[in-house]
Design a protein that fits this description.
It is a single chain. The radius of gyration is 17 Å and the shape is globular. With about 260 residues, it is of the alpha/beta class. The chain has a single domain, classed as 4-Layer Sandwich (Metallo-beta-lactamase, Chain A), CATH 3.60.15.10. A seven-stranded mixed β-sheet has the order 6-5-4-3-2-1-14. It contains nine helices and 14 strands. Helix 8 runs parallel beside helix 9 (about 220-235). The longest helix has 13 residues, at about 220-235.
């Protein structure tokens, strides 16, 4: 597998994942120009991407999904409800419409769109399985449901939300209503919740993590680093490579 976090945060999200003979982008929330610049910088050939997977309709996840798809003539996988909600972004694109919870076979991978809780019309995370194993991207989580927990077990790679530090959020500048929305069952999970989930997912085959969707106002990379260091220190089952997702620059192209 090859993985690159091209962007992660409230201003734009995009993950490159190569597994087996299939290359996908999970969300394209940057401008097309910036997406292509970051792919080139990471050594990724945009013309070899086979598909775009859309998690939900928020602009930081779909900004140039349609533009990329039209430029490179690749299909966009999107749920029926998201297609209806964000139809203008997908004009003149090849759409593969899926139902949340129903796995899809595409090329040499199986794509499993897992229903999650978030304040959008039909949000999903994605589990991608090939002969190389299982990889997942699950961000914009309100809560970690039992289904999400079970679907993430056994993955070699996870792009996992670690959105906010609870104290920073509650003592920060956001209005109370927004704080409550972020902490709600349809908002985002905290560093502490991500750490708890990681302890439940630890297995000897977990090789890489991207800690994703960090808030620029209510979190800091140092907090997430401490949290992941705690995870590594408190268990001896696995020692994955850990990348902190960045809003403004692509990660290295990881190969596992």
């Amino acid at each position: 597998m090859k993985i690159c976090s091209l962007a992660s945060g409230s201003k734009g999200n995009c993950l490159y994942l190569e597994s087996g003979d299939t290359r996908v982008l999970v969300d394209v929330g940057l401008s097309l120009r910036e997406t292509l610049l970051r792919m080139d910088h990471a050594g990724i050939d945009a013309a070899r991407v086979n598909a775009i997977l859309v998690t939900h309709e928020h602009i930081d996840h779909i900004r140039s999904a349609g533009s990329f798809a039209r430029k490179f003539n690749v299909p966009v996988f999107v749920s029926h409800l998201v297609r209806e909600k964000a139809d203008k972004y997908f004009k003149k694109t090849q759409l593969h419409v899926f139902e949340s919870g129903s796995a899809i076979t595409f090329r040499d991978v199986v794509i499993d769109p897992v229903p999650i809780t978030h304040d959008s019309c039909d949000p999903v995370g994605f589990i991608i399985e090939s002969r190389e194993g299982r990889a997942a991207s699950v961000t914009d989580l309100g809560i970690v449901t039992r289904l999400v927990l079970e679907k993430l077990r056994g993955c070699r790679f996870i792009n996992l939300e670690s959105n906010h530090d609870v104290d920073m959020l509650m003592n920060g500048p956001y209005p109370w209503e927004l704080k409550q929305r972020i902490k709600s069952r349809h908002g985002h999970i905290s560093n502490e919740e991500s750490l708890e989930l990681l302890h439940q997912l630890a297995h000897e085959g977990l090789e890489a993590l991207v800690m994703a969707h960090l808030s620029e106002v209510n979190n800091h990379p140092d907090h997430v680093v401490r949290s992941t260091q705690s995870f590594l220190r408190d268990q001896n089952v696995c020692a994955p490579l850990i990348i902190i997702g960045d809003q403004y620059r692509a990660s290295c192209l990881m190969e596992i």
